[in-house]
Specification:
single chain; two-stranded antiparallel ribbon; mainly alpha; 73% helix; 273 residues
């Protein structure tokens, strides 16, 4: 019972520190009206806030940085972590293209394949450094600690909700997400999407024992949602109500992702307190 209370105390400290530290950088971004404020320094600081908070939490309570999942683990889990977002983001956009809710732009494939591949490589490396900061917090500390005292389902839901709410100031401040979609709509479908894909993040972390699954999945998610497939989509009047992290189709596909990993939850072996 004492250890459960200690875990809850660490988790509350981590979330409080994450929200507190990131508020500085989010305020900077919102006041500047751009995610690129300070030459991306504000964005970098914001994304590393969960990592900094996790490190501080561990040093305060355990005087050690062990337990985050620094080990590489089995390579297949890292590869799958990178590929999973490609599959669900690709499925979302394929539905939009086929249904006519958005047009298909073949230019990146037919005339810019080399550039697209270079973008993928460069953005994966750069995006990985940004994503690592977040995932040291989310899957390095939050997920494995919470999984010791509750179920896979509750751990996934908690990670997704805390992660989603953490983004709310940027969405409400108008610097994150498509500007022509109402804020209330973005908040609803963003929360559903991010909470649902958190089942994949949680499962891969607990199965592999490595926080790098979170880093690769996060970097891939951001790259293919925010750049690659967006460039392949021709906007129509209501396209952004269905795609990106804020769309209805994105939420629907993400729920299927959550269901897939929820059905595989019995494959996980987590030592409970």
């Amino acid at each position: 019972m004492d250890e459960k209370r200690n875990i809850v105390k660490r988790l509350i400290t981590f979330v409080a520190l994450t929200y507190g530290i990131s508020s500085i950088f989010m305020g900077w971004v919102i006041s500047a009206g751009s995610m690129r404020a300070g030459g991306m320094l504000a964005g970098l600081g914001g994304m590393w806030s969960p990592g900094i908070a996790a490190i501080l939490t561990q040093l305060i309570y355990r005087k050690s940085l062990r337990g985050f999942g620094w080990g590489w683990g089995k390579t297949r889990y890292q590869v799958w972590s990178y590929c999973i977002p490609i599959l669900y983001v690709g499925a979302i956009h394929a539905i939009v293209w086929i249904s006519g809710l958005g047009g298909f732009n073949s230019e990146p494939i037919t005339s810019g394949l080399g550039k697209t591949l270079l973008t993928i490589v460069i953005t994966t490396v750069g995006g990985g450094l940004f994503a690592l900061g977040e995932e040291i917090g989310w899957v390095g500390l939050f997920v494995p600690e919470l999984a010791k005292i509750t179920s896979f389902t509750k751990t996934s839901l908690a990670r997704g909700i805390v992660w989603s709410v953490w983004h709310y100031p940027l969405i409400i401040g108008g610097v994150y997400g498509p500007g022509d979609v109402p804020v209330w709509y973005k908040l609803i479908f963003f929360t559903i999407t991010m909470t649902s894909v958190s089942f994949a993040f949680t499962w891969m972390r607990l199965k592999s024992g490595s926080l790098y699954t979170g880093m690769f999945m996060h970097a891939s998610h951001n790259l293919f949602f925010q750049d690659i497939f967006d460039r392949m989509t021709i906007e129509k009047s209501s396209t952004w109500y269905f795609v990106d992290e804020f769309g209805a189709i994105s939420a629907g596909v993400a729920i299927l992702v959550a269901l897939f990993f929820w059905l595989k939850r019995k494959e996980l072996q987590v030592e409970k307190i």
